[in-house]
User: Which sequence fits this backbone?
C-alpha cells in the first residue's frame, strides 16, 4: 500500500502560501486544504447563530460540524470573519478538534497539500516536504492592498500594514502552536519573487524529495 504524500506549507498572512499551495496541488493532483478557512468556518457558524465568540464549549461543537468540502473562500475571507476566527482559534478545545480534522485530511490519497500556520510543526511534523513561505511585512501589506483595489474596493495601505504586523505578533506570540518554521522546513522568501518563480522554486524542492522516495 502506498503512503499518502503530504506537503506542509506554513507562513504568515499574505505571504502567498495559499496561491502557491493551490498551484502545487493542481500540479501533482493532490488534495488541498487551506486550514485557516476551517477556523473561519467555525467562527462564521457562531456568528450566523448569534452565539458569543467566547463560549469554548459551543465553539467546539461548531468546529465538529465544519464540512471541509463546503468551505467557500470568497465568503470566509471577509474581514469580520477573520477577526472572529482569531478569537476562537486560541481555544484549546477548538484547536484539538480541528487539528484532528486536519490530520485525517492529510492522510487522503494520493497526497495532500495543507497550508496554514502550524502544519509542519504541529499538524504534520512527519511530512516529507515542509516549506515556510515568508515575505516582508511591507510587501505583504502591498499585496493585500493591491488585491482589494484591483477588485474595485477601497483600502488604506497604512491600516493594512498595521493589521499585518498585529497578526504577525499574535500568530508568533501565542502559547499554543506559535507560527514558526519547522526545523527541517525549506525557507522560501517571496518578497522579490513572482508567483511563477515561487512555484518553480517549490516544485524543485518537491520533485527532489519525490525522486528520492520513488
Assistant:
Amino acid at each position: 500500500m502506498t503512503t499518502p504524500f503530504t506537503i506542509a506549507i506554513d507562513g504568515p498572512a499574505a505571504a502567498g502560501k495559499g496561491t502557491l499551495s493551490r498551484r502545487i496541488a493542481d500540479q501533482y493532483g493532490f488534495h488541498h486544504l487551506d486550514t485557516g478557512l476551517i477556523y473561519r468556518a467555525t467562527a462564521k457558524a457562531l456568528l450566523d447563530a448569534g452565539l458569543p465568540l467566547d463560549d469554548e464549549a459551543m465553539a467546539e461543537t461548531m468546529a465538529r460540524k465544519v464540512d471541509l468540502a463546503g468551505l467557500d473562500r470568497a465568503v470566509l475571507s471577509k474581514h469580520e470573519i477573520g477577526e472572529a476566527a482569531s478569537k476562537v482559534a486560541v481555544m484549546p478545545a477548538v484547536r484539538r478538534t480541528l487539528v484532528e480534522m486536519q490530520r485525517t485530511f492529510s492522510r487522503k490519497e494520493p497526497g495532500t497539500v495543507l497550508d496554514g500556520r502550524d502544519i509542519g510543526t504541529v499538524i504534520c511534523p512527519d511530512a516529507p516536504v515542509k516549506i515556510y513561505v515568508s515575505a516582508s511585512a511591507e510587501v505583504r501589506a502591498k499585496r493585500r492592498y493591491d488585491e482589494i483595489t484591483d477588485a474595485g474596493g477601497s483600502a488604506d495601505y497604512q491600516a493594512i500594514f498595521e493589521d499585518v504586523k498585529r497578526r504577525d505578533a499574535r500568530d508568533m506570540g501565542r502559547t499554543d502552536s506559535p507560527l514558526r518554521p519547522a526545523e527541517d522546513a525549506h525557507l522560501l522568501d517571496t518578497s522579490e519573487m513572482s508567483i511563477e518563480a515561487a512555484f518553480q522554486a517549490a516544485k524543485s524542492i518537491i520533485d527532489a524529495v519525490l525522486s528520492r522516495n520513488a
Observations:
- Strands lie at 5-10, 31-34, 111-116, 129-134, 186-189.
